[in-house]
Amino acid sequence: MKTFSEEVTLEGHIIDSWTLPRAFDAIMDMGGTFDVEEIQVGRAKDQPSFAKLKVHAENEHKLENILLALQALGATLASRDDAAYKPAPDFYSTTHLPTQVRLGARWVDVQNTEMDLVILVNPETGEARMVPSAAVRKGELVVVGHEGIRIIPPQRPRNREIFSFMGSNVSSEHPKRLVIEEIAREMREIRARGGKVLIVAGPAIVHSGAGPLLARLIREGYVQVLFGGNAICTHDVESVLLGTSLGVALHSGQPVPGGHRNHMAAINTIRAQGSLRKAVENGVLKEGIMYECIKNNIELVLAGSVRDDGPMPDVITDVQQAQLKMRAALQGVEMALMIATMLHSIATGNMLKASVKVVAVDINPAVVTKLADRGTFQALGLVTDAELFVRELANALAALEEKEAKQPAKAGKS
Amino acid sequence: MKTFSEEVTLEGHIIDSWTLPRAFDAIMDMGGTFDVEEIQVGRAKDQPSFAKLKVHAENEHKLENILLALQALGATLASRDDAAYKPAPDFYSTTHLPTQVRLGARWVDVQNTEMDLVILVNPETGEARMVPSAAVRKGELVVVGHEGIRIIPPQRPRNREIFSFMGSNVSSEHPKRLVIEEIAREMREIRARGGKVLIVAGPAIVHSGAGPLLARLIREGYVQVLFGGNAICTHDVESVLLGTSLGVALHSGQPVPGGHRNHMAAINTIRAQGSLRKAVENGVLKEGIMYECIKNNIELVLAGSVRDDGPMPDVITDVQQAQLKMRAALQGVEMALMIATMLHSIATGNMLKASVKVVAVDINPAVVTKLADRGTFQALGLVTDAELFVRELANALAALEEKEAKQPAKAGKS
Amino acid sequence: MKTFSEEVTLEGHIIDSWTLPRAFDAIMDMGGTFDVEEIQVGRAKDQPSFAKLKVHAENEHKLENILLALQALGATLASRDDAAYKPAPDFYSTTHLPTQVRLGARWVDVQNTEMDLVILVNPETGEARMVPSAAVRKGELVVVGHEGIRIIPPQRPRNREIFSFMGSNVSSEHPKRLVIEEIAREMREIRARGGKVLIVAGPAIVHSGAGPLLARLIREGYVQVLFGGNAICTHDVESVLLGTSLGVALHSGQPVPGGHRNHMAAINTIRAQGSLRKAVENGVLKEGIMYECIKNNIELVLAGSVRDDGPMPDVITDVQQAQLKMRAALQGVEMALMIATMLHSIATGNMLKASVKVVAVDINPAVVTKLADRGTFQALGLVTDAELFVRELANALAALEEKEAKQPAKAGKS
Amino acid sequence: MKTFSEEVTLEGHIIDSWTLPRAFDAIMDMGGTFDVEEIQVGRAKDQPSFAKLKVHAENEHKLENILLALQALGATLASRDDAAYKPAPDFYSTTHLPTQVRLGARWVDVQNTEMDLVILVNPETGEARMVPSAAVRKGELVVVGHEGIRIIPPQRPRNREIFSFMGSNVSSEHPKRLVIEEIAREMREIRARGGKVLIVAGPAIVHSGAGPLLARLIREGYVQVLFGGNAICTHDVESVLLGTSLGVALHSGQPVPGGHRNHMAAINTIRAQGSLRKAVENGVLKEGIMYECIKNNIELVLAGSVRDDGPMPDVITDVQQAQLKMRAALQGVEMALMIATMLHSIATGNMLKASVKVVAVDINPAVVTKLADRGTFQALGLVTDAELFVRELANALAALEEKEAKQPAKAGKS
Which of B120, C63, C166, C190 can pair with C4 through a Cys bridge, CB separation 3.0 to 4.6 Å? Predict the structure, then answer.
C-alpha cells in the first residue's frame, strides 16, 4: 500500500515534558504509524533530548492532520520551507502558545498570541501577528497550511511552584491557605517589578461583602486591569451609595424594605452623571471598586451581557467592541485572577496566551475545571468561596507587607 | 409616640394562597405594627376572604415601604386615589405579576408585564405599559410612588398539576418521566390551540447529540420561538456540515483530527453566505436546528456574548438590541423551556411575565434553583441531563401522538 | 354523599407563623374540605389567634390522614380522649417537634424527641419517651392512632436572628462573615452558660489544614461533643504523627514520597496502643483534634462506615451501636455545627430535635439544602469551604474574646 | 557529595504508555537524579522499548522512596533478590494493579489484588495473597520493604474503546447515548460468556421510578452481584408493597397522605418475616429489585450505615463484616456499574482491582471524578441522571436484543 510520509524532529525536554509520548499518541490516535529514525535521550535531567521520526499515513489528508497535531507539540518539519500565505479563507488556526512563522527563510515571532485566531503576515516588513478571522480585511495575507510554523510548547517547571500542578485543580479538600499565600507572594513580586495583574471579578464579590477588600487591593497597587460586567459595577455602586447589594444591607445581611429598587436607583444615578468617571469627579461616587479603578487609572473593561438591567453607562453593550477593548487591555498582563464569574472568565481565558499565570476561583467545581484546563503548566484552579478567598488573599498580602516592613534591608522576594 | 398609619384591604383567597400571613410578615419584618380591623374568612374553600388592616409605622418612609410591599401582595390602599405620574427619575419599579393602574378613576391593565421596568401612562388614551427605564424618552409620563397601583397576585391552583410545586424544583431523585410526560401533554395542547412555546437552548443539546431531536420538535410544530447564542448556532451548523461538535464526531463520540478548526470553518461558511437564511436558500444548510427554524419561520433570536468566537452573522452582537428582539418575540408565549444555558435563560426569565409556564432544565442544581425560583406557581425545575431530557421529551411526544392516532375521535387533551 | 367529620382547634400565632394557611393547604391537598366555625385573629402582633375548623372527608381513612397532618401542625382534636397504646406493630411515627401525649387525662411531655421513632408509654408512672421501633421490647406499650397526641409547632421568631431564615440556606453569594460572627456569638453564650455545642466534623477539615484550628476550639471549651468517622480520626493522627494528610504534607501542600502509606501507619500506631486514650496517656499522641477530645473529656463518637480502611480502634464498626452512642451524647446539645461530612451529618440530623440550632456547612449546595431543610426556624445552611469557614470562625471567636477582654465589666452577651 | 544509587530497568510500551516520562518525573519530583544508561525505543508502534536508568539520591531513605515509586510504574530493580518478609508491622502497602513477588527465585502472582492491603506469603507453598492489615494473624509472614516485588502497569489500549478515556470522565456535554450503547454491548458480551457484572445501586434509582427497569435487568441475567444499603432495599420494598418511595407515589409523583410512615411500615413488614428471602418465600414480596435478587440467586450485599432507619433484617450493620462479604462477592467480577451512591461506590472502588471495568454514574461531577479517577484505562465516569441513565441502558439492551434476534446466525459480539 502506498503511504505518504514526512520527517519531523522534536528537540528539548521532550521526554521530561511528556512531548515525545504525546507525539506517539497523536500519530497513532489519528491512524498513522511512525519509525523512530534517531533518538538521543539526555543522560541527566538538564540535558535536552532529540528525536527524529518518520511519520506515515495512508492519504495526504491524514498526514496533514497528523503534522498539524505534531506541530502543536513543537515538532518542526524536516523540509524547512517558508510559511505559505494568501488572501484566502482556509486559515491556519492558532494556539495560545508562543508561535513563530518562517518568512524569507527567517523564523519570526508572531505577535498577540491567542487561541483560535489567524496569522496575518507582512512579507515586506517581516512581521506577523494574530487577529480574529472576522477582523481580516480584504487583501491582507493570512497563513495557510502548516509549513513554516513553529510552536514552542511549555516546558514543565522543575521547581515545585504552585502553578505547576498542570490540569489538576486544587479541590475543596486541599490546604488553600498555602496556595493563597503563594498567589499573594506572586502578586507582590509583579507589583515590585511594575508588572500587570488582571482581576476578572464577579458580582458575588460585592454581594458577599468582600467589595471593600477588592477596592483596597486596587488602591494598594496590586491590580492593574479589571474586567467585569454590568452586575459587579451596579452592585458596587449600589453598595457605596445605598449600603445594599441587590437590596440586602451589607452591614446586617438582611434585606432592606424596598431594597429591590436600589440597583435601578444606582444605575439611574450614574446614568444621570453620564459615566463613572464623571460620578467620581462630581463627588457622587466616593469609594468602592469602581471608584478605585477610576482614581488609580486602572484599565477597566465592563462587557455587557443579554441579562443586564440598565445598563450602567460605562458598560460596552456590543460584545465585539468589548472583546477588542479586552484584547488591548491584556497586553503585558502576567497574572490573571478570575473570581466567581464564568462568562467573563471564559471570555478572558480565550484571549490569554499560555504564559500568563491563571488562577480560577469558583465554588462550582465544573467552572473551575473548565477555566483551569488550559493545557499549560501555568493554571491553577481553586474550588472555594469568593468572599473567603478575597478575605484570605487580603490577609496574606497584609501579612507579607508587615513581614517585609520588619526586614527593611531585604527587598523583593521574601 | 406619633405614628403614621394607613388602611389597606386584602381580598380573595388570602389565607388559602398565603397572602394574609405574608402581609403580616412583611409589616412586622419591616418594623411596622398593625391592627386587624375586620376579617372574614370564607367558611368553605371556594369562598373568598376579606381583611382590613390598619398599618402603623414610626415614620413616613417606613410606612411607604410597607405599603409598597403590601401592594406587591395585592393589597389596595383604602384611599383610592389615581396613580401619580410625572416626567421624572424616581420610578415605580414593576413586578412580573399582572398589574393595574388607576387612571381617571378607572383601573387600567398595564401592558407588557415584566420585572424591574417602569410604567408609562398616557392619561389621554387611558393606556399604560411597562418599558425599561433606559427606554423612556423625554416628556413621557412615568408612574411614581405607590398610589393607584394594584397587583393581582397568583392564586395557588388546587388541582395538582406539575406546575404547582411552587419554588421547590424537582431534584435528581424524583421520577422525572412523569413530569416530562406532563410537559409533553402541555406542549401538545398548546400546539393544538395554536399557542406559542419558547425554547431557550444551550449548546450542550447539540454537543451531546440531541440536536436532531430538537430539530424534529421544531419541524413537528412544537416550538414557535427559539432563543440561543452563538454557540448553539455554531455547534448546530458544524454538526450538520462537518458531522462534529467542537471537533468531536457525533457518530462516534471521538475527537476528529484537526477538528478543533471545524467550528471556525462552520462560522466562515455561513459568513460567506451572509446569513443562515441565505445558507438555507442556497442549499448550503440542509438540516438541523437552525435549518428548521428558518424553514418553519420560527422566531429565532441569537444573542451574542463576550465569549463568542466569530460570531455567526445572525448573532446580534449588541446586547440591548438582542433584548429588544427577545421582548418582541415573547409576545404570546405560554410556555418556556430553558435547557442547559444559564446566561440566556436568566436573560429570558427576567423578561417573562408570571403567567408563563417555565420549565428550567440543567444538571447544576444551583442553576435550576435560580431559574425556577420565580415566586409563582408556574415554574418547574428539573435537575437533569440536557441530552437525556430532550430524548425523553421527544419519546413522550411521540408516544402521545401514537396514542392519539389510535383514538381518532377524541381530540384535544387526553 | 355521606362524609366523615371531625372538629379541630388551632391556637397561638397561627396566622403569623403560617400555621392556619398550612392547615387549609393540608386539608385540601389531601382531598378534604372544611368549614371555619370560628376564627379570632389577634388585633395586634402579640395577641394569639384561635380557629375552630370542621374537617370533612369522604371516608374514614382520608379523614384520619388529614387529622394526622393537622396534628403535626399543632391542631388538637376537639374530642379530648387519652392517647391509645398497645403492644402492637402499627405505631404512631414521631416528628422532631416537642410532643405531648394525654395519659390519664393529663398532657405529658414525651422525652427524647426525635424523628421517625415510636412513643413508649408507661401509664402507671405517667411517663412517655421516644425510641426506635427496632428497640421496642415485647410487652412494652406503644402509642397507636392519633388521638391524645399534641405537637407544639415552632413559632417564627420575630427578632431577626440568623437562624430565622427558615428553609432558605445562605448561598455562596451572601455575606458569610456576618453569619459566622453570629455563630461565634452564639457559641460564646452557650459556653458561658455551660451549655453544649456539637461539631460533626468531616476529614476535609484536617486535609485542608484547618485541623489545628478545630483542636484549638475544643481546647478553649467551645465544643462539648464531637461526631465523626474513621477518616477524620485517621487524618488527624496522621497529621500529628507524620505531618501529612493522605500523604500530602500540610506545611507545603505537596505530596510526600511514599506518603500514601502514612494513613495506614497512623492507624497501625494507634492500634498498637489499643486506643486513642492510651496513645494520649503513653505520650504517643501529643496534640490535634483527637488529643484535645481525650484531654478535655469531650464526648467523642466515631461511627464506622463501609468505606473505612483499618479502622482506628476507637471507631464503632457496628452502625446501630454507633447510633445508640450518638443518641446518648446528644442529650443537652443546644447547637450543632455540621462541617463537610454528608454521611455523619445526615445521621445526626435524623436524631436532632427541632429546637437544636443547626448550622450546615458544605461546598456542595445540594448537601447543604438537604441538611438545612428541617422544617424549623433553627437551621442555617452555608455553601462554603470547610477550611475557610473554620478559619473565619476561629478568627471571629478570637475577636470577640479580645473585645470582651477590653470590657471586663460587661459579662455575657456583647 | 556521597550519593546512594540503584539501577532499575523498564520494559514494554514504556514511551507509548507514558511510563518512562512518569518515571523521570517521579525521580526528579522526589529530589533524585538519574542517568539513562541504555535506551532502545521500538522503531514501530508494536515494538516494545527498553530503558535502564541509574537513579541517585542523597540519602538511603529518599532512594528507597524513589524505588518504591518506580516500582509502582513497573520498574524492576537490577538486583534480583527475593522479596523480604517477616512477622512485622512495617508492611509493604499494595496497589490495585497485578502484582508479583519473588519467592524462592521465582516470580509468583499475588492473589486477591486490592489497594492498600498487605501481602501475606507462604514460602513453603510458594503462595502469596493480599489481605487487610487488620486481618493479619500472629505469626503470618508479611512482605516488607520493596525488593522482589513487581507490578504490571496497565498498557494503554490502542483500539479506541470507551474505557480508554483514562481519567477524563464523560461530562454532561458529551453524547452519552453512544457510551451507554457501548456499556450495553459490553454487558451482553459478559452475559454471553458467563461473566459477572456488579451493580452498586443507590436509592435514587427507586425513588426516581427506575426500580422496575433495574429489576428487569436482573431478571434478564445482566447482573450477577448487587451492592447497596438499607435505603435502596427499603425504598424498593416500600415501592412494591405500598406503591410509594419515601411516601411519594411512583405512579403520580405526588406525596401520599401519611406516606412518610410508609418506609417504616415496609421495614416492619420484612422484619416480621425475618428476612427478604422469607418474605419472598411467603409470597409477601412478589416483585422488585430485592425480589429478583432473591429469585435469581444474585449475590446481594446490603451494607449498613449510621444514617439508616430500621434497618431491614438483611442489612449487615457491622461495616467490617460487610466489607468481608463484599470482598468475597467481588471474585470474578469483570465490570462494575456504580449508580448514584457515593458511600457504597467508594467502598467498592477501594476493593476493586485495576482490571475491572468501572462505570461511575452520578449527577454530581465531583462524585464522578472521585470514583472514575482510578489511575487505570478501565474507568469511565458519566455525569448524568440515574433515572434517565438506567432507562437509556435498558433501552439500549433491548435494542441490541432485538437486533440480534433478527440475525440469529451471528452470535457473540455484534
Answer: C63
